[in-house]
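Readers outside the structure-tokenisation community will struggle with the description of the input data as it stands. For illustration, here is how one protein appears when written out as sequence plus structure tokens:
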Amino acid sequence: MPLAARTGGLTALAGALLAGSLSPTAAPTQPAPGPTSAGTRVESSALPGLDPDAPRAEPAAVAARLAGPLSDPVLGSPAALVVDALTGQVLFTQRATEPTAPASTIKIATATAALTVLDPAAELVTRAVYLPPAGGAANAPGGTLWLVGGGDPTLTAATGPVGYPPAARLSDLAEQVHHAGITAVGTLIGDGTAYAGPAMAAGWREGYVTDGNVTPVSALSVDAGRSAPGAAGARTLTPDAAAAGAFAAALHTAGVSVGAVSTGRADPGAHEVAAVRSPTVEVLVERMLTDSDNDLAESLGRQVALARGLPATFDGAAQGVLGALRDAGIPTDGAVLRDTSGLSVDNRITPAALVAALRTAVMPGQPALRTVLSGLPVAGFTGTLGDRYGAGETSAAAGVVRAKTGTLRIVTSLAGLVTDADGRLLLFGLFAPVEEHGLTRMALDRVATALASCGCPPATTTAVTDTARTSQQPPPGPSAGP
């Protein structure tokens, strides 16, 4: 069933914000985890479920709980949205339908598009194709070998174990070339032309490459343009040429001599002699979200473009991602994307759109989208939240908050999900129009912690609920200690 046909009211999210709720959708059957006591550092485990019996949070109570943390001056004038994941009821909204700079939280949109347009089990293939000398046999020495990139930035020059997910290795590709009977190559050419257009997006800072944030986009790169597997620091400005050079070294080790090395488009008459495959799209999406991998985000955006018959450019990727969101019933009014990683300061999308994308992943009927949730960093444990929520007033949310981070000089953002103190699953988006620093991150984390510790039922039952809690355990609060 196409996503656009699903119920849930996602297409009308902007209007529902004005009404104060989204259309309810039938609940799945999986159980939700119970509430987490204040100060308890829980371990990250299974994804939270939707418990229809968990007490509903009341908008006025949520607003009261967030009033203090959101008013922190270091956050400027933030945009924010909190939604009940099961019912879609809007619990708190502050400029949530205004297009906002998302930074890396846009990767939620990229992930949603990739998992709805692409086969989650698909792999990105790097090929070696060979054109022998005129009149020679298929493996005659002295011909031309092309290394043809399929958009896999995880392709590695490492020869030993490469961790998880297991990346495709140039050494394996070189061994296959040798096993094909090719012992000498006159010319080796790196072909990254499956992706087109400029290699840098509008709104990218010049220092992104030299600072090691991203590699100029090409369909062919090795170790995402790093000088060595896992190396920090500047990336190469010519990833296709660097990949060809690394492949030449791998071929030499495999017993294949190489003459000249250059870059260019493969001859259509060349035949395939070797191929290696990336981890699946599903695994790549998960890694992209957890590590906030910009190279994967740009590659996945272009794969979406190709699948939708669009150019594999920044513009094509942006059109493809936004089109996939619309097909999924997610509002994109006012959205402008210059890239699919979130590095551009010119990107704009509404907080409502990203929260709607999260709700699409939470609701039943599209199991592939669960990867959008499992890929979100876990507070205090994984990815870009691994070093946050570790102590002090935010430690109560460790293991409870799952969220994508975003950082640019014009915005600090956080969007994800949290199970509140009553076991109710909430979705949230927080966007502060200020540059990130330690105080800003801590302030956003306090907002998320306030949601995690929220026991926010209707005012008529608050006293009874609080009394019941007090008789069993101290109520969690945003300032609980470790």
Observations:
- The chain has 13 helices and ten strands.
